[in-house]
Amino acid sequence: GQCVAVCPTGALTVKSEVDKVWDAIHDPDKVVVVQVAPAVRVAIGEEFGLLPGEKATGQMVAALRKIGFDRVFDTLFTADMTTIEEGMELLGRLEKGGRLPLFTSCCPAWVKYAEQFHADLLENLSTCRSPQQMFGSLVKKHYAREIGRSPEQVVCVSVMPCTAKKFEARRPEFTTGGVPDVDFVLTTMELAQMIKEAGIVFNELEPEVFDNPLGMGSGAAVIYGASGGVMESVVRFVAAQQSPGDVGRVDFYPVRGIQGIKEAELEIGGQNLKLAVVNGLANAEKLINRIKSGEAFYHAVEVMACPGGCLGGGGQPYPNNTASRLGRMKGLYALDRAEQLHRPQDNIFVTRALERWFGGPANANTHQALHTRYYPRRRISGKPVEVSDRREERPV
Ligand code: SF4
Questions:
Q1: pTM (2 decimals)?
Q2: CA 140 → CA 37, 84, 177, distances in Å?
Q3: Distance between CA atoms of 201 and 221, rounded to whole angstroms?
Q4: For the sheet containing 154-160, what is the strand order?
Q5: 107 CB under 6 A from ligand 1?
Q6: Which UniProt keywords apply (predicted)?
Q7: Strand 102-103 to strand 154-160: parallel, antiparallel, or no bridges (unpaired)?
Q8: Does the beta carbon of 384 lie inside 6 Å of ligand 1?
Q9: Is the dihedral of CA 82, 104, 303, 377 positive or negative?
Q10: Does the beta carbon of 310 sit less than 6 angstroms from any atom of ligand 1?
Q11: Cis peptide leading into 244, omega within 30 of 0?
């Protein structure tokens, strides 16, 4: 467990937490809960001889149980929750004339970049926590109580395609009384390492399914792993909110694919929405310049730092090249097609959880538990600004 992961933005070096996760699993006083991001399931198999995008969800779940995780949950659950909260946020801004474009905020490398280089845009960022952090908040504040444990007794581990997610989990906003909402973040590669360390023969595992209630996700949540996926999920949510009688599928092809900048227009509720999707921070910079100069206008913009979105993240297996990324992307859309639940609001476990824990979506309670704020960051020769410095700066 001594491997060192490097952040795709080059600003951060983080040690693997594999050893700490093994310690937690072997601690009889802890309940160890794991969540797995969408892009992991279409890439982990590559470490065991499968092709990029070949479905390995069932084997991955079985491997996580064999490793010893007490509950095997799915980040898809909170991806659906994020879409609902963010979709409501977009509708609210459209209605009330709020700051536009609404930028997505689930990629921590993009959030940090905006904090460093575009402080004037921070009010445009969605206040929604990322699916990883919504999950941590739910587990520590609500799930722990329901199973009769304290937040300290429940260890929340994430498996992410991403190294920047380690940094996100350590943001002070996502810690309550010294207890982080997400205790440890493993990359796809680090999970593969644990599977090998445990001597598990991945390809011989019988497929298993996630635990409930936090293991259920819609197809709209699966595609979060691909560039354009968050935007398409929001479109599915908003389209269904605006025309409740219509239960047809919305497959929104203009935002799919690995191109660096994608644009789309869509009429929803009598309004023509202009949308943009970018992957790669250099592309984000180009788009932002066009927005700031008045050359372009959008209602909503999705930004992901990695090429192709999270499926091309810095924690994914090698080779992490265009061919692998295309394969994983195909895999994610195939999972979406096979999924019976198409839109986030179809996920009854999510809508029930929102009702039970917060009295519904998009209210003061969800804002407390599922949303966040952003801070301008000073740039000190590429090093992250110390937390104590950061606290002095005014929140936006
Ligand atoms: Fe992480 Fe890359 Fe996804 Fe951003 S796009 S959340 S850096 S994997």
A1: 0.92
A2: 18, 21, 12
A3: 29
A4: 71-74, 31-36, 154-160, 184-187
A5: yes
A6: 2Fe-2S, 4Fe-4S, Iron, Iron-sulfur, Membrane, Metal-binding, NAD, Oxidoreductase, Repeat, Translocase
A7: unpaired
A8: no
A9: negative
A10: yes
A11: no
pLDDT tens readout for residues 144-176: 999 999 999 999 999 999 999 999 999 999 998
Average pLDDT, the chain: 92
Please give the residue that has the higher pLDDT: either 274 or 379. Answer: 274
Whose CA is closest to 228, among 160, 166, 311?
A: 311
Burial 99-134 (b: 16+ CB within 10 A, else e): ebbbbbbbbbbbbbbbbbbbbebbebbbbbbbbbbb
Report whether residue 161 contacts ligand 1, using a CB cutoff of 6 Å. Answer: yes
Q: Which residues contact 272 (CB under 8 A, 6 or more apart)?
A: 265, 266
The residues assigned a catalytic role are: 86, 89, 106, 126, 165, 168, 173, 310
Phi, psi angle pair for 265, to nearest 5°: -125, 150
- pLDDT bracket for residue 269 (50, 70, 90): confident
Average pLDDT rounded to a whole number, residues 361-389: 78
Q: Is it the case that residue 25 has pLDDT exceeding 90?
A: yes
The rounded Å distance from CA 8 to ligand 1 centre is: 8
Give yes or no for residue 109 CB within 6 A of ligand 1: yes
Mutate which of 7, 125, 165, 188 for ligand 1? The one with the most ligand atoms within 8 Å of its CB, which is 165
Cα 150 to middle of ligand 1, angstroms:
31
Residue among 125, 162, 182 whose CB has most ligand 1 atoms within 8 A, to mutate:
162
Q: Are 205 and 45 in contact (CB under 8 A)?
A: no
pLDDT above 90 for 68: yes
Taken in order of first residue, the domains within the chain and their CATH numbers are 4-392 (3.40.50.1780)
| CA of residue 9 to ligand 1 center, whole Å | 10
CA of 27 to the centre of ligand 1 (A): 31
**How high is the pLDDT of residue 247?**
61
